Amino acid sequence: MSTLNDFNNENSNTSDNPTFDSVLKARLSRRGMLLGSMASVGTAVLGGTALTACGGGGTTAVAATTPVAAAITLGFGAVAKSLADKVTVPAGYTASVIYALGDPILNGASAFKNDGSDSDFENRGGDHHDGMEWYGLSATGQPSLTSTDRGLLAINHEATTDETRSSFFLHTNGGTSTLPRPAAEVDKEVAVHGIAVVEVKKTGDSWAYVKDSAFNFRLTPLSDVEMAGPVRGNALMVTKYSTNGTRTRGTLNNCGTGKTPWGSFLTGEENWAGYFFRNATDNTARANDKSVTALNRYGRAQGAASRHGWETGGSADKYMRWDNSKLGTSTDGSDDCRNEMNGMGYIVEIDPYDKTRTAKKRSALGRFAHESAAFSVPTAGKPLGVYMGDDSRNEYIYKFVSAANWDAADAAPANRMAAGDKYLDNGKLYVAKFNSDGTGQWIELSISNPTIAAYAGYKFADQADVCVNARLAADAVGATKMDRPEWCAVNPANGEIYYTLTNNSNRNVNATGSSQLVPDSTNPRAYTDMKGSSAQNGNPNGHILRVKEGAAGAAATTLTWDIYAFGAESGADTSKVNLSSLTSDQDFSSPDGLVFSPSTGIMWIQTDDGAYTDVTNCMMLAALPGQVGDGGKKTLNYTKTDGSTLAVDTYVGKTPTATTLKRFLVGSAASEITGLCETPDGKAIFINIQHPGENTKMADIADPSKYTSQWPSNAGYGAGKRPRSATIVITKNDGGKIGT
Fold first, then answer.
1. Which residue, 469, 511, 601, is CA-closest to 74?
2. For the chain, which ranges sit under pLDDT 70?
């Protein structure tokens, strides 16, 4: 992410929620052990390992709804760690670039020069390719569930590579980092955000994007979008742009994705708050009303600088919308942009097949720093669950349960957005509270919940207020603070849900104050990890949490959990840090992207790592993950500075073997590996390489030899030497399924 501010590390959760139930909190722990602490490990079997399918229908019902691949093995040689400026895949595989930042996709845009002189980015590929989904097309251009050689890629374009405000690779001489920002620079930077739908096609053995496809389109932060669900028409949504509170402009900082059972595309708005500005006297202008509490909780204290300074691009409304200050005289916000930020932070639904249908923000799923949205295994006659994480330090894990029960006839509806209205606008929003005994609860976030209605920290007006300020509602009910919940994915074989918890520098055995947390059971490690001579404290390597729903499936309010794997260097102490005993073919740091293959059942793990990058570039691993309860209980004993002991119980999954977890890909220099989808036969997978060369200095823009990456031009793709985020396709040379 940005070198100006790492918005992934934003921490505005100052609630005093216990990290677990208060009776046991003295024994809780999250990540591991501080350097110099003493840890002892005891082992016991976690009981209750028998599995039932998510949705409550049993494994037979799940198999009948979603066929599960036959047992497989990981049939490739592990890729070694690497610092080379290239994408490395196993022997017998080929990786090819097919779509990159700046590629012309519509309206006759010119070939991309990649020298900073290009414009009309509304008609080009955006930047920072992230989450991605596949939508098949038949030979006649109709939606197809079986097509393997023609389809649409719906791709998130999350952000830009920047230093001190300017997205410098987009501009000829690196751009302007001082304020005010030139309008032409702002226009470029805004336009590379959002999403793209791009047709791709296989000809012979080669894949390429279709430049002038009638299906191609972009959605940017200036596109018109509908508000749907409880917030539609609510007072919190009233702006100068939409005086009736039913619409907003665009989508921003799109990260993870989801594919609905009815065939639409979901995109999550993640670190959107940092794009907005509030002036230094805004609290007074708002008479210090409750909106100040909400803005602070979402990381926008008055006087905070915006990420890019877009609000300084001019007096036109498209620039002023980034100033979230109360500047008008109206009582409802209809004459300024004071409520503009309330229109960001949602799961957005898009019909990838039909660009004439307006995108909708599904507010019933809550507002926070969304990553992906993973659906429970659809079971006829049962509600759908949608699982989500809030990607900031000390934030929460959520799920939404539809009021409507799944009807298999909706798998191919005449109107995909109408199906979204049916399943995503009405239901119950929950937040997770995890207990130290391997159990947990889903707590409903509803205005009818007495704890929320009576919350002293913020007076909720209605359910729309609960959805807009889901973080505050989760604070009210004492949800468990987690270590940056990023992507989540549902195992189609058994319905269990996996969450990547990327890292958290705020874990500390001797934690004090509201921003630091002691380790607890679901986040049990706190230790020091050395990156060269630099000490990284807390939980720098992250882990992957695994959740099994109670007997009611997606509608359950109880759960059990364990930790599938802990990120760690293979040489780290197995009693304190490398609790999963990872080897050099498996070790990883900062798990982020997470996707199950519907074809093979492989779980793909992608990293966004700053802790291990002195040893290796970011990577992707293939896993055959087992099930909740297949490992055992471990107790970590921490010695605090006052001499007392903090004992933390956690539950660790079965130790991965060389046949159940191994490294499949290593990316180019200074990049993140993210986004994955595949053709229905599993014989082609599409991966995104985000922000190669991101730690290049703006002062070196004129000297390509000083770029920390020149990918993908050094792989033979496109003009110029400036690094570009890009989508690659991976195929197996013998034509087989990927990973097997």
1. 601
2. 1-10, 18-70
* Tally of residues, the chain: 740
Measured CA distances, 107 to 120, 185, 352 (Å): 10, 21, 18
Q: How far apart are CA 518 and CA 510, in angstroms?
A: 7
Cα separation, 550 vs 65, in Å, equals 19
Angle at 159 between CA 153 and CA 162, to 5 degrees: 140
Average pLDDT, the chain: 92
Q: Is residue 313 within 8 Å of 183, Cβ to Cβ?
A: yes
Token look-up 């405000």 returns 165
Hey, what are 666's tokens?
């290593």
Specify the pLDDT at position 8: 59
Give dist(CA 291, CA 534) in Å, integer: 40
Q: What was the pLDDT predicted at 11? A: 72
- State how far Cα 653 lies from the chain centre: 23
- Distance between CA 622 and CA 593 in Å, rounded? 12
Tokens of 400: 């939404």
Whether residue 158 contacts residue 128, with contact meaning beta carbons closer than 8 Å, is answered with: yes
Measured distance CA(460)–CA(455) in Å, rounded: 8
- DSSP symbols for 355-390: TTSPPEEEGGG--SSB---EEPPP-TTSEEEEEEEB
Quote the pLDDT of residue 441.
98
Extract long-range pairs of 713-721: CB within 8 Å, 24+ residues apart. Answer: 713/114, 714/85, 714/86, 715/86, 715/87, 715/97, 717/97, 717/100, 718/97, 718/100, 718/102, 718/103, 718/112, 718/114, 719/111, 719/112, 719/113, 719/114, 719/115, 720/113, 720/114, 720/115, 721/114
Q: Are strands 726-732 and 684-690 parallel, antiparallel or unpaired?
A: antiparallel
List the one residue out of 654, 646, 652, 543 whose CA is nearest residue 20: 646
Instruction: Measure Cα distances from 200 to 97, 126, 663, 683, 720 in Å.
Output: 12, 16, 27, 15, 24
633 touches 15 (CB < 8 A): no
As a dihedral over the C-alpha atoms of residue 451, residue 454, residue 459, residue 460, rounded to 10 degrees, the angle is 50
For the chain, the 3-state helix, strand and coil shares in percent, each to the nearest 5, are 15, 30, 55
- Per the DSSP assignment, residues forming a β-bridge with 651 are 633
In 502-590, the DSSP E strands lie at 527-531, 534-538, 543-549, 558-566
Sheet containing strand 726-732, edge to edge, reads 93-100, 726-732, 684-690, 672-678
The answer to whether the beta carbons of residues 684 and 609 sit under 8 Å apart is: no
Gyration radius (Cα) of the chain, Å = 24
360-362 vs 374-375, strand pairing mode: unpaired
pLDDT score for 13: 82
- Residues 426 and 549: beta-carbon distance below 8 Å: no
Contact yes or no for 659/73 (Cβ under 8 A): yes
Structure tokens at 88: 């490395």
Alpha helix segments (H runs only) across 509-653:
none
Neighbouring C-beta atoms of residue 532, cutoff 10 Å: 7
> Which pLDDT belongs to residue 512?
83
Name the DSSP class of 25: G
Answer yes or no: are the C-beta atoms of 690 and 158 closer than 8 Å.
yes
Q: What residues contact 87, with CB distance under 8 A and at least 6 apart?
A: 95, 665, 666, 667, 668, 689, 711, 715, 728
